[in-house]
Amino acid sequence: MSGIDGDNLLLKDFYFPPFDSIQAHHVRPGVAALLNKLENELAELESSVEPSWPKLVEPLEKLVDRLEVVWGAVNHLKAVKDNPQLRTAIEEIQPEKVKFELKLGQSLPIYNAFKAIKESSSWDTLSEARKRIVESQIKVAVLNGISLEDEKRDQFNKIEQELVKLSEKFEEHVLDATKKFEKLITEKKEIEGLPATALGLGAQTAVSKGHKNATAENGPWVITLDDPSYMSVMQHAKNRDLRKEVYLARLTLASSGELDNMGIIDQILKLRLEKAKLLGYNNYAEVSMATKMATVAKAEELLEKLRAASWDAAVKDMEELKQFSKDQGALEADDLTHWDTTFWSERLRESKYEINEEQLRPYFSFPKVMDGLFNLAKMLFGVAIEAADGLAPVWNNDVKFYCVKDSSGSPIAYFYFDPYSRPSEKRGGAWMDEVVARSRVMSRDGAPARLPVAHMVCNQMPPVGDKPSLMTFEEVETVFHEFGHALQHLLTKEDEGLVAGVRGIEWDAVELPSQFMENWCYHRDTLMSIAKHYETGESLPEDIYSKLLAARTFRAGSYSLRQIRSASLDLELHTKYVPGGSESIFDVDQRISQKTQVIPPLPEDRFLCGFSHIFAGPYAAGYYSYKWAEVLSADAFSAFEDAGLDDIKAVKETGKKFRETILALGGGKAPLDVFVEFRGREPSPESLLRHNGLLAVSV
């Protein structure tokens, strides 16, 4: 059996993980053997450690890296190719992995060696990146419970183990609940309004569920809660009952029966608070902010500033929507509610700007969008991105593999891209993650540094029949967003592996390059280079481009409030909420929503039960980061506006500067300093409010 050590794939020395061959049965024996090896290496390091780079940081990086690469590959497969066997294998070995990480994070010899470096006479001679590594290692060790007395440390470790388990369960419940919802529709009149792409997807899903003769024209169709399916119902289905049913299913996702996440959330919040108290903090948000740019007070202040700027605009949005639906003779005009707003917003947008998301799709075919994106990267940052399919094993035939080359034609990085939705095995949403980071210590074959590798994952509409994947404008923005994250990982010039690429960057600054890239979707030359009709090749008509631009700030107040609700709720739950107290998590949501939702929330709103970002992802007490980084990214983009977006020479010069600062420096320099180096001053929220049309015009 190939689970035995000798030929276990996970123990082989690889640069590109064998994604096509890793199976569930490799996981437990492979990770167990690796942990065993790393335990021995840790013991050896602890006994011979000296406060110097070669005797402390280099062996430590090698140790951490091996585990991150192997665990990263296994966990990535769980996200894109989930199956019960893989789940069980990960669940079984996870406690061992957490135990090892706690042991490493609480190693006194290593901690003391880092402190000795900081207190040594040679401290001032260290590079800024090395100083950041030392300071970060000391801070993280304290947050890992290194200073706790034995009994308290045992309690801390138990909490950590339990939190990892609960987060896994939370995510599995969300995936399973999403998978479980299927609505079979056989009557065409029930899905009136749904565009051809959605009917094609519905029929394709039906075929995969055993309805062999399903066609886009005659059905049957299967509606799921996966984004492409869910959004097309919310935006286009004339059938209000269908919208209501699908909306409520999504709103109450993972909130009942055996997939109920409610108890898990309370447990998570309770344990996070306990952990914070053990470490000497008042609440978990303070623990979270210890490694971020913001403080709790600063994050709350920004959210309130943006909320105040968005509220009146959102109220106006709602009044306009009610009036419009009334003018259209809508029966529900006097009673517009949550499952109506997306539908009527879409109709209003069509009438106001004569833009229809579905009519735009033929202009955004996946291959063209990628070409345009890569041309933009070449123009701004001087890199060439080439298809390199076949060079690295992939987990699905739809996955693309690319090589990034510098201006001299030498490879500097690689990345995978998994674009399409696969509801039966792949989690929703979009993300970028590292496969390996750039590193001098981990270099191979005499190269000066190991080259970074990333993967990008999206969930857009798959190709239907012989048509390519035709994207909505929002899906185009998502690809640009994730590519921004990838660029920061791939174009790093930092050779210290522990702070290369996206590593070591304060969490509330990581969204800067991703949100920055979204701005280019509205840049005329960029958009026109992408938007070519997939059949005729004709460019997007000029008047439609102007309308897209005008529609950019459409309902900006409402969209802004939606993010502010999530961010404020996240902070409130991690600062003031008392688990098991008089208020439930849903009471807190209802209270926050009074100030952040123009239509009062429904009593049955269980949105929190599917809020993976904060309960199964890295955004706990950090969801505000999207807004924080949006301020940074809008301000960074305004440097290009100031230079003149039509002045190609100025754009290239500014792009070069952006690459050399924001994209190159990684976690090797404090993000505020990096920003100032690029922009010449500290960030201001003005550009963001201006881009969103929310800046009160001063007369």
TrEMBL record:
Q: What GO terms in the biological process aspect are recorded for it?
A: peptide metabolic process; proteolysis
The record's remark on the cofactor is: Binds 1 zinc ion.
Tell me which residues make up the Peptidase M3A/M3B catalytic domain.
Answer: 233-693
Oligopeptidase A N-terminal domain boundaries: 32-153
The cofactor required is: Zn(2+)
Which Gene Ontology molecular function entries are recorded, alphabetically? metal ion binding; metalloendopeptidase activity
| EC number(s) per entry | 3.4.24.70
Reactions catalysed according to its record:
Hydrolysis of oligopeptides, with broad specificity. Gly or Ala commonly occur as P1 or P1' residues, but more distant residues are also important, as is shown by the fact that Z-Gly-Pro-Gly-|-Gly-Pro-Ala is cleaved, but not Z-(Gly)(5)
Q: Which InterPro entries match?
A: M3A_DCP, MetalloPept_cat_dom_sf, Neurolysin/TOP_dom2, OpdA_N, Pept_M3A_M3B, Pept_M3A_M3B_dom
Q: Which keywords, in A-to-Z order, does the entry hold?
A: Hydrolase, Metal-binding, Metalloprotease, Protease, Zinc
Q: Which Pfam families match?
A: Peptidase_M3, TOP_N
- Which EC main class describes this enzyme? hydrolase
Q: Which GO terms describe its cellular component?
A: cytosol
* PANTHER family to which the protein is assigned, alphabetical: LD37516P, PROTEASE M3 THIMET OLIGOPEPTIDASE-RELATED
By sequence similarity, the record places it as follows: Belongs to the peptidase M3 family.
- What is the name attached to this protein's record? oligopeptidase A
Species for this entry = Daucus carota subsp. sativus (Carrot)
UniProt lineage: Eukaryota, Viridiplantae, Streptophyta, Embryophyta, Tracheophyta
